Amino acid sequence: MGRSRGAVRTMAREAMKRMSTGFWETEYAERDERLATVEQNGKDKTEAVKFFVAETKGKLKRESRAEDEMYLRIKRLFLSGAEENALAVLIDRRHLDSMDDGGRQRYILELSARLAEYRRRFKDEQEYGLPGTAVCV
User: Fold this and answer.
1) pLDDT tens digit string along 80-93?
2) DSSP labels for 26-81?
3) Which residues form the domain of 55?
4) What secondary structure letter does DSSP report for 99?
5) pLDDT value, residue 100
6) Closest CA relative to residue 126, chosen from 71, 83, 78, 90
7) Considering the chain, what percentage of its residues have pLDDT values greater than 70?
8) Is residue 14, in this structure, part of any structural domain at all?
9) Which of the two residues, 137 and 55, has the higher pLDDT score?
10) Is residue 77 in a domain?
11) Is 70 exceeded by the pLDDT of residue 32?
């Protein structure tokens, strides 16, 4: 029970931090600005809203900037056209070498799923003409 109480307190602290820093005001202003851009470009507003909501959820879910940094590395590969090397960029060789065969397979499958998510995110950003990544709160 103490563990869940601590988790609730942590979530409450994070929520208070977002409120005190003006996270939501900034988020809504950015979303409105982006929606205006999407409408000007003649894109589907409904799909854009879904993307923006998912992007906000992603900001809230990320635990560190490491995820954003990894995405930016992969994004640079996508922009350079060297997509075939993307999985190799994600792999931590030391970690991979320390695993047994089953662990290696699971690790590569997890990285492949992450790469698929990055690819989807990149495609959405390109389609809606959005900036690379936002700062985590």
Assistant:
1) 888 887 888 888 89
2) HHHHHHHHHHHHHHHTT--HHHHHHHHHHHHHHHHH--SHHHHHHHHHHHHHHHHT
3) 22-128
4) S
5) 92
6) 78
7) 85
8) no
9) 55
10) yes
11) yes
Q: Is residue 28 part of a domain?
A: yes
Could you give the CA distance from residue 36 to residue 104 in angstroms, rounded to a whole number? 45
Question: Residues near 48 by Cβ (< 8 Å), separated by ≥ 6?
Answer: 34, 35, 38, 128
pTM as predicted: 0.54
At residue 19 the predicted structure's pLDDT band, cuts being 50, 70 and 90, is confident
- pLDDT value for 106: 92
12 domain residue, yes or no: no
Q: Is 132 left (phi over 0), alpha (psi -120 to 50) or beta?
A: alpha
- Structural domain total, the chain: 1
The 8 Å CB, 24+ separation contacts for 127-134 are 127/43, 128/34, 128/37, 128/38, 128/43, 128/48, 128/51, 129/37, 129/38, 129/41, 130/34, 132/71, 132/72, 132/75, 133/68, 133/71, 133/72, 133/75, 134/55, 134/59, 134/68
